[in-house]
Amino acid sequence: MVMAANVSQIVPAKPPAREGSNDSGRRSDRAAELALSAFMSMARAVAIVGPDGKLLLPNLAFDKLFRDSDLLDRINRDASRNDGKSDCRITLSDGSTFWVETIPMEDGWLVSAYNMTERSAKERIDTLTKLGNRLMFQERLSELLADPDVAAESAAVLMIELDRFKAINESLGRKVGGELLCLVAERIRSAVGRGGELVARLGGDKFCIIQTGQPQPKSAAALASRLVDAIGPAYLLDAQLIDLAANVGIVLFPAGAACSEQVLNSAELALRRAKSDGQGTYRFFEKAMDEKMQYRRGLELDLRRALALGEFSLVYQPQFNLGLKNVTGFEALLRWQSSTRGAVSPVEFIPVAEDSGIINSIGEWVLRTACREAVAWSGDRTVSVNVSAVQFANPNFVATVLSALGESGLDPRRLELEITESVLLASRHTAIAMLQNLRGIGVRVSLDDFGTGYASLGYLRSFPFDKIKIDQSFVRGNPNDAVNQAFVRTIASLGHSLGMATVAEGVETEEQMARVACEGCTDVQGYLISRPMPPEQIDSFLLSRSESQPLVL
After folding, report:
1. From CA 30, how far away is CA 230, in angstroms rounded?
2. What distance in Å separates the CA atoms of residue 69 and residue 62, rounded to the nearest whole number?
3. In CATH, what number is assigned to the domain containing residue 58?
4. 140: domain CATH number?
5. What percentage of the chain has pLDDT greater than the value 90?
6. Which of 97, 118, 139 delimits the end of a domain?
């Protein structure tokens, strides 16, 4: 390293006092001395380098840290290439890491270096839970994957996700949500114990654990079971008991994985399988999961092309009012005739569209098409359009509805939007405000698949729905099932008290129609009235209904 020049070479000796010099000159000299003293005693390592690359004036911190390193040579190379200005990260032989900056001066440049070692450690800690963060996790995972001695028989990754956390965070607030995550982190630490496992929070309500040096898959299964049991008991926060459940996805590695992201993707697939199998479960990654994901990705690509190719269409199923004995509206149902796959069931492609976000584009097409086609129907019959939670999360959804109504000329009172509990569960307060805006312009709103969730009655108190659609499972069930009958009767009575129509879905027989009518339902929908039909058949259907005798109950 180039040795520093003597201080006297840099700071010139004070010239002899001239006769008549004043106090301002002495103050200036004193200020220069203080500045030099402050420069030399600064905690940050700082130095002045001349235009020839020689170290002119290092402060004490710089001289102590870099006396025996080749730092200056590297600084000179970088600064010379960049007109004296550069920044770089340098790691010394003792493992300490520094960020070095150079700033051009009139005659050379100023070098500033600060220790990143402590900061680097902080950057790998989750500030909320004090667990490791995603960066720490991925670095450790990459190290293990690069280690030839690590085998699938001794290492595993466990990915944990909390059930219902988003709804809790929305309803109780982020402060409570943050406190809840900290309590969950403590329980995870307790379940892991004092082994060598790395525990990290990847973000949101997702955690990950690396388990090494233990026989697999037995050890991972045992840990996953402990995690589910530890996270499951209720939490007391903000004077409220909060129920929470966890699902766990497990992947043994290396298992052919080329990188940390591949391991995480596999753990994510296993986690999805666990979530689909119910709350509080864990599942191991299997190759078939990846094959299924590849199929879903192909389906997603075809969905993106389907709109451009005009492969979607709508069919309409009538809704029959038992009091008027007449068809009062139609529900729009989406169909996809793929050029490569043939007819694809909505049960198959709608979840993929929602997961990928394509449902926003598809849903907008459905809304605009349904409004445009409904304008031609006789009378004031309504058109019902299903709306997913993903669409409702879009802040532009209300504007899209207004655009569809304006473009088609459809009376807003003839449009009915059908939502499920998932819409309210995803973001209750935001969804209620959006529903109120829609009601304000005259659009009707119905709650679909009623009875299949866990908090339906609470939602009826939150918003004055126009209609409740009772899930077909309660209609098609055993006619002698007292529980089903009691449910239908209770909801019909509740709907009547709240001024809401009640539609029994899935009515296929005269017996089912008579039964739901007896229980108090106001409307029915199902194959007994009609199967879904293309828009060009609606006029003839309505004409035939007007000419025929009404259904006898």
Report:
1. 67
2. 11
3. 3.30.450.20
4. 3.30.70.270
5. 41
6. 118
Sign of CA dihedral 159, 163, 164, 169: negative
Mean pLDDT (the chain, rounded): 84
Give the mean pLDDT of 284-298. Answer: 80
Give CA separation, 199 vs 36, 43, 188, 215, in Å.
48, 35, 8, 19
Nearest to 266 by CA among 246, 286, 294, 292: 286
Q: Do residue 39 and residue 59 come from a single domain?
A: yes
Q: Are residues 105 and 150 located together in one domain of the fold?
A: no
406: CB partners within 8 A, 6+ apart: none
Q: Is residue 393 domain-shared with residue 476, that is, in the same domain? A: yes
φ, ψ of residue 358 in degrees (nearest 5): -65, -20
For the chain, give the number of residues. 553
Give the type of residue at 351. P
The residue among 87, 118, 149 that closes a domain is 118
Amino acid code (one letter) for 460: L
Contact, 383 vs 329, CB < 8 A? yes
Please state the φ and ψ torsions of residue 501, each to the nearest 5 degrees: -70, 150
Sheet holding 86-91, edge to edge: 55-58, 45-49, 108-115, 97-105, 86-91
| 98 and 144 fall within a common domain | no
Identify the three-state secondary structure at position 11.
Answer: coil
CB 126 within 8 A of CB 178: no
Of the candidates 90, 157, 85, the residue with the CA atom closest to the CA atom of residue 120: 90
Is 491 a member of any domain? yes
Task: Please report which residue ranges of 251-345 form alpha helices under DSSP H.
Answer: 260-276, 287-309
Q: Give the Cα separation of 159 and 141 in Å (integer).
A: 13
Q: What is the pLDDT of residues 51-90, one digit of tens each?
A: 887 888 889 888 887 766 666 776 666 666 556 566 666 7
Rounded-to-integer distance, Cα 380 and Cα 443, Å:
13
Distance in angstroms (rounded) separating the CA atoms of residues 387 and 249: 30
Nearest to 312 by CA among 290, 285, 332: 332
Per the listing, tokens 């038992």 go with 322
Residue 334 lies in a domain: yes
User: What whole-number distance in Å separates Cα of residue 72 and Cα of residue 59?
Assistant: 14
Same domain, 390 and 331: yes
CATH of the domain at 336: 3.20.20.450
Instruction: Write out the two tokens for 499.
Output: 């001024």
Q: What is d(CA 84, CA 6) in angstroms, rounded to the nearest whole number?
A: 23
Within 173-282, residue ranges assigned H as helices are 174-192, 218-231, 260-276
Residue 390 sits in the same domain as residue 535: yes
CA distance 187 to 229: 10
Rounded distance between C-alpha atoms, residue 220 and residue 210, angstroms: 10
Q: Whole domain around residue 54: which residue ranges?
A: 7-15+24-118
CA-CA-CA-CA dihedral for 147, 152, 154, 157, to nearest 10: 90
- Grouping H, G, I as helix, E, B as strand and the rest as coil, residue 246 is strand
| pLDDT tens track for 115-130 | 766 555 667 888 899 9
Residue that is written with structure tokens 């299964």 in the block: 221
DSSP state of 488: H
